[in-house]
Every structure is written in structure tokens, then in C-alpha cells.
Fold this sequence. Notes:
By secondary structure, the protein is mainly β. The protein has 2 domains: 8-68 and 125-149, Chitinase A, domain 3; 73-120, Thrombin, subunit H (Beta Barrel), CATH 2.40.10. Helix content is 8%, strand content 39%. The chain is built from 2 helices and 9 strands; from the N terminus they run βββαββββββα. The strands form 2 sheets. Strands 1, 2, 3, 4 and 9 form a 5-stranded antiparallel beta sheet that branches. It has a 4-stranded antiparallel beta sheet with strand order 5-8-7-6, with no helix packed on it. A hairpin with a 2-residue loop joins strand 7 (103-113) and strand 8. The longest helix is centred in the N-terminal third of the chain and has 7 residues, at 43-49. The chain is elongated.
Amino acid sequence: MKNTENPVVSIHYTLTNKAGEKLDSSIGAEPLSYLHGAGNIIPGLEKALSESSVGDKLTVTIEAADAYGERNEAQIQTVSKEMFKGMDNVKVGMQFQADSSSGPAIVTITKVEDDNITIDGNHPLAGEQLTFDVEVMDVRSATATEMEHGHIHGASCNHD
């Protein structure tokens, strides 16, 4: 079956950055499954996997704009430590969900200095050129419910 008409696609992948450092991989675990055409994965990878078939292997390099976007300095803010009232030990690297003008967003603490905390709303991989080594493991038709909900249903799905 070819990857057309919004199928569920399962892939094994290894993700590296421009320096060749391995950032993530599904090898040795379950393949990543997603509903093709629903925006469940980064646009550049989804485009590269269009019309792929089971057994296809490809290496695709994706520029930041088609991955997690360019870094946006406006997403970096310094806020008062008072915003984290009730938290004893705020540290660099901690992540929190925050409300943004476009809905919920994840922010990462990048600096703690006296009573000021710098938070970054950019995705950690924003601005990065990424390379995926991918093998298509399975392609199946999506169910009507998966199409309606815009994502696949499986063990980690927690709604009816």
C-alpha cells in the first residue's frame, strides 16, 4: 500500500542534527505511527514521506523552516521569580505549560539569576537543520474515527 489518502504510517527513524549528533531514534522500540496529512509530524518529514511504501528507506535533511521553525527571539522573556511562587527549586532546563496567544505552549527555563528567570517558548530544536534516516515499516488505511479525530488511536490514546 502506498502512503496516499491520509493513511496511518509507521516508521523507524534516527534523527541527527547538522553536526551529526544523534538526537532521537525509534530503533529498538516501537515504530512511530502517525496519521499522514494531519500535521502530526514536522512538515518537511511528512512531505518527504508522501507516496512512500512499506520497505522504503530514505535519508532526508530538513531545514529549520520545515522542521520546528526558525528561532524567534520574541519567544524569550525574563520574568519575575514571583511567577514561580510555591516552587522551591527552579532550575535551568525545567519545562512548563503556559498559555500563549496561540493556545497552550511549552516554555523552558534557560537562566535563573537572582529574582529573574528567563524562559524560552521556542521548541528546543527551533532553528536547527535536521536529518532523518527513515524506514517505512507499515502503511494502513486510517479508521473513520482516526480521520475524524486527526490522529491515530492506539494504546496511548486516552479518549473514546
